[in-house]
Amino acid sequence: MANEIVNKEQLHALFLSGMPLKEIAKRMNSKPGSIRTMIYHERQRNPYEWPHRIHYPGKPKELPLMMHSYECTECATRFAVEDYEDVDHSATVCPICQSNQHLQDGNYGRFIPTSVTRRAEA
Question: DSSP letters of 12-56?
């Protein structure tokens, strides 16, 4: 079996466009399983660039937000802030205490809205 050579920039663009894996594989002359594996490995290296796709009826069009959670041990407040490469977390303070002295680092991951606001049709 010959090794497949896939243009990672093209794969990334097609993946972010929302194209189904079968279509990506067809366009790149590859197999869906191979494409899925490549995406998995790229996601391990750079999760911000390869977000998980959300599959549920009525999903919002926006991409999920990457978030980082914190807990303040002084006032027992839990909160989250956006977590992207260019966000400076050294400036993060508790929204109640306005201090970073008692902050404990929490988890990070993607925020997925659970409800979709629908406009009333006239």
Answer: HHHHHTT--HHHHHHHTTS-HHHHHHHHHHHHHH-TTTSPPP--S
